Amino acid sequence: MNRVICDIKDHSLADAGRNRIDWALTEMPVLRSLQEQFTREQPLAGARISGCLHITTETANLVRTLKAGGAELLLCASNPLSTQDDVAAALVEHYGISVFAVRGEDNRLYYRHIAAALDHRPQLTMDDGADLVSELHKNRRDLLSDVIGGTEETTTGVIRLRAMAADNALTFPVVAVNDAMTKHLFDNRYGTGQSTLDGIIRATNILLAGKTFTVVGYGWCGRGIAMRAKGHGAHVIVTEVNPLKALEATMDGFRVMPLLEAAVCSDFIVSATGDKHVIDRSHFQVMKDGCVIANSGHFNVEINIPALQDLAAKTSRPRRFIEEYQLADGRRIRLLAEGRLVNLAAAEGHPATVMDMSFANQVLSIVHLWNNGKKMENKVHPVPGSIDDKVAIMKLAAMGISIDTLTQEQQAYLSSWQEGT
């Protein structure tokens, strides 16, 4: 058995963490099936994997599956506020997995933990935001020759990795798990939609019905947030820079306008763009008194927090996850969860059901890289269609849903061009 090393908050939390991990697994039938298959087949025997991920109950079941397949794992956190300390303890104490993650860790400790993950000399990487891969290329280049490939879980990380590839800086292939159809259609839309509102409601306990709720960005995550806010009875506004997405939001029944206009009347503003300072000083200067602002993008740069701090005459903490900034004219702006991922910082992240598909993609993509990475080009690759289809088929089967299949006649018709009207 591999030696377990760690830096976690409290080992005594392990039993509570195991109970929650087992609870999540009841909603993850695809991963359960893969665990059984991996235990028999050992497709990752001998693989060293370092993961920079959100340390949650669902992630625990992801790494349990990889370990069942023979992998040697070390985990660190991909966000200082997303670690569930009881889960970290359970992974170390009950599942023999090395973990370096403490909820609330400062920037110095965060990067020290990433360094520990790299000290593992990974052959495969798993990232959520690309900090592990970025640090590997910037400061630990001596390790690059060991790396066969990696996976990336979120939009922000895929954007960073594509920029690296465009600069010819990426030295190994990465599979964009985020872009799998069974990931962004369900995890990003239904998972982010529900968990973001869950975080906002837990943090504020403010009724959404009748409030004006602005969503900044109408990608898959923004679509989900807008959909769920509308379901709560909120009046939803969408702001966008992409004309096609703005048109789609309009056709979906949402009001679309510039954020500078929306800020004047919004009770809630939530960003989900993957970009920097999308909620900025100019918006704070006209924002409605009492407006709640939150971020559901990966990094805490979507809200220009330094500008908000500069404008504030005083600050207070009325509730655990709320920092209230009072401006010179008396208006109050309420920032949730330090501008970090509100669904993980103020709640528990995505429901296990959707993460079942996302992490099944992650697991199968890791096996794909282990078997094929040395032959793949050093760029960002899509999840193979066969993996996407397999995950969908397994999920449908677990839900007890059957679908039709094409007849030979129908298959022949779709593959030919001769037959017309």
From TrEMBL:
<feature type="binding site">
    <location>
        <position position="183"/>
    </location>
    <ligand>
        <name>substrate</name>
    </ligand>
</feature>
<keyword id="KW-0520">NAD</keyword>
<feature type="binding site">
    <location>
        <position position="240"/>
    </location>
    <ligand>
        <name>NAD(+)</name>
    </ligand>
</feature>
<feature type="binding site">
    <location>
        <begin position="217"/>
        <end position="222"/>
    </location>
    <ligand>
        <name>NAD(+)</name>
    </ligand>
</feature>
<protein>
    <recommendedName>
        <fullName>Adenosylhomocysteinase</fullName>
        <ecNumber>3.13.2.1</ecNumber>
    </recommendedName>
</protein>
<feature type="binding site">
    <location>
        <begin position="219"/>
        <end position="224"/>
    </location>
    <ligand>
        <name>NAD(+)</name>
    </ligand>
</feature>
<dbReference type="GO" id="GO:0071269">
    <property type="term" value="P:L-homocysteine biosynthetic process"/>
</dbReference>
<dbReference type="GO" id="GO:0033353">
    <property type="term" value="P:S-adenosylmethionine cycle"/>
</dbReference>
<feature type="binding site">
    <location>
        <position position="153"/>
    </location>
    <ligand>
        <name>substrate</name>
    </ligand>
</feature>
<feature type="binding site">
    <location>
        <position position="56"/>
    </location>
    <ligand>
        <name>substrate</name>
    </ligand>
</feature>
<dbReference type="InterPro" id="IPR015878">
    <property type="entry name" value="Ado_hCys_hydrolase_NAD-bd"/>
</dbReference>
<dbReference type="GO" id="GO:0006730">
    <property type="term" value="P:one-carbon metabolic process"/>
</dbReference>
<feature type="domain" description="S-adenosyl-L-homocysteine hydrolase NAD binding">
    <location>
        <begin position="188"/>
        <end position="349"/>
    </location>
</feature>
<dbReference type="Pfam" id="PF00670">
    <property type="entry name" value="AdoHcyase_NAD"/>
</dbReference>
<keyword id="KW-0554">One-carbon metabolism</keyword>
<dbReference type="InterPro" id="IPR000043">
    <property type="entry name" value="Adenosylhomocysteinase-like"/>
</dbReference>
<keyword id="KW-0963">Cytoplasm</keyword>
<comment type="function">
    <text>May play a key role in the regulation of the intracellular concentration of adenosylhomocysteine.</text>
</comment>
<dbReference type="InterPro" id="IPR042172">
    <property type="entry name" value="Adenosylhomocyst_ase-like_sf"/>
</dbReference>
<dbReference type="GO" id="GO:0005829">
    <property type="term" value="C:cytosol"/>
</dbReference>
<feature type="binding site">
    <location>
        <position position="128"/>
    </location>
    <ligand>
        <name>substrate</name>
    </ligand>
</feature>
<dbReference type="GO" id="GO:0004013">
    <property type="term" value="F:adenosylhomocysteinase activity"/>
</dbReference>
<dbReference type="InterPro" id="IPR020082">
    <property type="entry name" value="S-Ado-L-homoCys_hydrolase_CS"/>
</dbReference>
<keyword id="KW-0378">Hydrolase</keyword>
<feature type="binding site">
    <location>
        <position position="187"/>
    </location>
    <ligand>
        <name>substrate</name>
    </ligand>
</feature>
<comment type="similarity">
    <text>Belongs to the adenosylhomocysteinase family.</text>
</comment>
<comment type="pathway">
    <text>Amino-acid biosynthesis; L-homocysteine biosynthesis; L-homocysteine from S-adenosyl-L-homocysteine: step 1/1.</text>
</comment>
<feature type="binding site">
    <location>
        <begin position="154"/>
        <end position="156"/>
    </location>
    <ligand>
        <name>NAD(+)</name>
    </ligand>
</feature>
<dbReference type="InterPro" id="IPR036291">
    <property type="entry name" value="NAD(P)-bd_dom_sf"/>
</dbReference>
<dbReference type="Pfam" id="PF05221">
    <property type="entry name" value="AdoHcyase"/>
</dbReference>
<feature type="binding site">
    <location>
        <begin position="296"/>
        <end position="298"/>
    </location>
    <ligand>
        <name>NAD(+)</name>
    </ligand>
</feature>
<feature type="binding site">
    <location>
        <position position="350"/>
    </location>
    <ligand>
        <name>NAD(+)</name>
    </ligand>
</feature>
<feature type="binding site">
    <location>
        <position position="188"/>
    </location>
    <ligand>
        <name>NAD(+)</name>
    </ligand>
</feature>
<feature type="binding site">
    <location>
        <position position="343"/>
    </location>
    <ligand>
        <name>NAD(+)</name>
    </ligand>
</feature>
